Amino acid sequence: MRALLLSDIHANLQALHAVLDHAPAHDTVWNLGDIVGYGANPNEVIERVRGLGTTFVRGNHDRACCGLTGIEDFNPVAARAARWTQCVLSAEHIAWLRHLPQGPVQPLSDAAAPRCAHGSLLDEDEYILTAREAWHSLAAGGPPVNFFGHTHLQGGFATDGEQWYRLTPDYETRDDAETWELSLSSGARYLLNPGSVGQPRDGDWRAAFAVYDTARRSIEFCRAPYDLRTAQENILRAGLPDRLASRLKDGR
Ligand code: ZN
Question: In this structure, what is the dihedral angle of CA atoms 245, 247, 251, 252, given to the nearest 10 degrees?
Fold first, then answer.
């Protein structure tokens, strides 16, 4: 079984289209949240992802944009984008966002199957940025392979029980579609982040995603170039903050 992992699309329709065009063969789609917020096409993105599969966890922007939680904790740019998104979302899409499940969820029935979360396995709003935070999330036990998003940084962490390792894909180009495959060891435990489809922050502007293969026990981290200019123009035309358009070209 091959699962396409999508996270942090953030209403970037052009990036989502590129990901679906470039994605290797897969049987299912697991979505790790923050479908909306920041980008200019929230209704179109929700429409598209709803047609892709049934496995979702909610992100903090999904909650804020449907009014489930307030925006007091958001920085001014994120808060402005969340208010704009609330105004343009259809009533049906707001209702759909409100029913997204809190992570972690386990898409397969097998107890050893992977879990999917937005933040950490313990707290949907926690950022896993260090090996210490990864350890904290995995210390309670559970399956060996776990997926998360929220940081917008592709890669993750692994432990063999003694050492911790930071995993960062090593790509050859800056602008082409690329894949970097990692074989998972049977004795190790993993927290893996497919990266952000719509607003990468790891210095690479290309849309990020991943494919997990249960039979081969491998993960393919992928990047795909997308129509950046249209995504930026849509943000500016919508009256969203300029910074949300400019940051996309730097992947920061
Ligand atoms: Zn996000």
Answer: -150
Helix axes 242-250 and 76-88, enclosed angle (nearest 10) = 110
- Classified as helix, coil or strand, 65 is helix
The average pLDDT across 11-33 equals 97
Residue 9: CB partners within 8 Å, gap ≥ 6?
A: 15, 16, 31, 34, 35, 36, 39, 45, 49, 196, 197, 198
**Cα(162) to centroid of ligand 1, in Å?**
31
| Cβ atoms 180, 231 nearer than 8 A | no
Q: How far apart are CA 110 and CA 221, in angstroms?
A: 24
Please indicate, yes or no, whether the overall pTM of this predicted structure exceeds 0.90: yes
Q: Please give the distance, rounded to the nearest whole angstrom, from the Cα atom of residue 76 to the centre of ligand 1.
A: 15
Locate 206 and state its tokens. 């290309």
Distance of CA 151 from the midpoint of ligand 1 (Å): 7
Residue 34 Cα to ligand 1 midpoint, Å, equals 5
Q: Ligand 1 center to residue 231 CA distance, Å? A: 17
- Tell how far the Cα of 150 is from the centroid of ligand 1, in angstroms: 5
- Look at residue 111 and tell me whether its pLDDT is greater than 90: no
